[in-house]
Amino acid sequence: MKIGQNAPQIYQYPLNLFPGEADQMVEDDGNYKFTPLEVSKVVEKEKSRIELLTGKFIYSGFNMWTTQRLDESFLITSKLMGKKVTLKIDLEGEYTVNTSDIENPNRQDCQAMSQVLNVIVKQAMSETGLLQFGQRPRFFDSKSPINVHELDMQIWSGFKATAYKYQSGCNLIIDSCARFMSTKSVLDNIHELYDQIVDNEYQGNVTKGLPKFQDACRKQFTGQSIIANYGTKRTYIIQDIKFDLGPCNTFFDLNDGQKISVAKYFYKTYNMKITDKRQPMLVMNTQGRSVSLPSEFCLIDGVPDSIRNNSTHMRTLLNKVKQNPQEKLEAVVGMVNKLFKMQKWAEWDITVDEKP
Questions:
Q1: N or C end: fewer C-beta atoms under 10 angstroms in the chain?
Q2: Rounded CA gap, 231 and 338, in Å?
Q3: CA-CA distance, 23 to 75, in Å (whole number)?
Q4: How far is residue 280's CA from residue 283's CA, in Å, rounded to a whole number?
């Protein structure tokens, strides 16, 4: 991977998000701090407006990179969850990435450029139609899952890709990978446990069976990795299960201090309707905050122990994605050929040797 001689100068600027309109915002009121995901939502929504101010740009987290040097900070008023917010592109945090000396491994520019390259790799991979799964640089074909109906499982084929700086230069590392997940929601699994314990073991005696059922749910699901089956398919670890609250009486806090029910949030944001208003809520921790998600919108991540402990079932799963060395190489080369047709590389004058 090489930076061309005509590569543009790159400038890095901090991105910050504040509640309220530009003339009313308080930059540090000691209250709510926006997350990178919330910043990303605003940036994507206001992408055209930002490009008019900064020219072409890429971003990640709380930073953006552009080829046009700014003369001033910019404040862009937008909306997030129906509430007014202000995005600030901060001139004071400007950092210039010197692309002409990028091969010097001891320079800070080398580290900064590696970050830029990985953002470009991420965007180029997404342009191929693959979906980034979680925060790691892994991209999967969500439109063509391999379904294993007899095991209630599905497999997403994909690739992991990252730019890495070696002494010999910057290299793009690509390898094939696969993601296993259940086709049943966590709520489906909870219903199965209820039938097994309350209906069968206690013959429908809710008073006696309910405590054991709830204990069994917590034992089975606490610490379990799950996939949020909406949006960017983020993964979470279940910290606890709330049986006394449902999606209609559990609330998300909005940036202005108002609240919105979880049920209303999912319908408003993702057009997803709650089918069981009394379903248990899954408690997760994300970026230092506790959030509760409906169990019907979450899938079990990975291979469950019931399958993992059965050699026949595991063999069935693994045979679906098994590749010999030649097949693996052909898959990677095919992805590379597709990847390098994306416009992002030419925009930043980056060339990559397509041969492994």
A1: C
A2: 25
A3: 9
A4: 10
**Please, are residues 317 and 180 in contact by the beta-carbon 8 Å criterion?**
yes
Q: Which residues make beta-bridge pairs with 139?
A: 132, 159
pLDDT class of 47 with cuts at 50, 70, 90? very high
* 3-class DSSP state of 77: strand
Q: Which domains does the chain have, with CATH numbers?
A: 2-97 (no CATH), 128-322 (2.170.260.10)
In the chain, the largest separation of any two C-alpha atoms, in whole Å, equals 76
What is this structure's pTM? 0.72
Residue 251 has phi, psi (to 5 degrees) of -130, 150
Which tokens go with 192?
A: 């199965």
Is the Cβ–Cβ distance between 78 and 86 less than 8 Å?
Answer: yes
Q: Report whether 185 contacts 276 (CB < 8 A).
A: no
The gap from C-alpha 24 to its chain's centroid, in whole angstroms, comes to 32
The answer to whether the beta carbons of residues 284 and 236 sit under 8 Å apart is yes
Q: How far from chain centre, in Å, is Cα 97? A: 27
Query: CB–CB of 189/300 below 8 Å?
Result: yes
pLDDT, one tens digit per residue, over 113-159 is 778 888 888 888 888 888 887 678 899 988 888 999 999 999 999 99
Q: Alpha-carbon distance 20 to 86, whole Å?
A: 6
Closest CA to 292 of 262, 259, 271, 255: 262
Instruction: Evaluate whether 16 touches 75 at the Cβ level (below 8 Å).
Output: no
Q: How far apart are CA 142 and CA 159, in angstroms?
A: 12
Instruction: Specify the DSSP class assigned to residue 22.
Output: T
